[in-house]
What we know:
Layout: H1 9-32, H2 44-73
Amino acid sequence: MSTPTHPSLADGIADAVGFVGGALGGFWLGQWLGMDIFAPGYGNQSLVGIVLVGLGGGLGLHAARRWQSSRRSNPSKD
């Protein structure tokens, strides 16, 4: 019977970097498209910009977790 592995500090840091990196990517994509999430009020462009930040954060987190799982399945040859 194997014991479950607990998330390590490296996993948490990788998740955080993936999420923040993806959110920043979504933010800058929105800025490039002219969608300011900090505009006064909640207009359509502002809401689309907020959605882009959320999607970017989720995609970045997903990419970080895929990277972590690929590292676990391919042990290093040290």
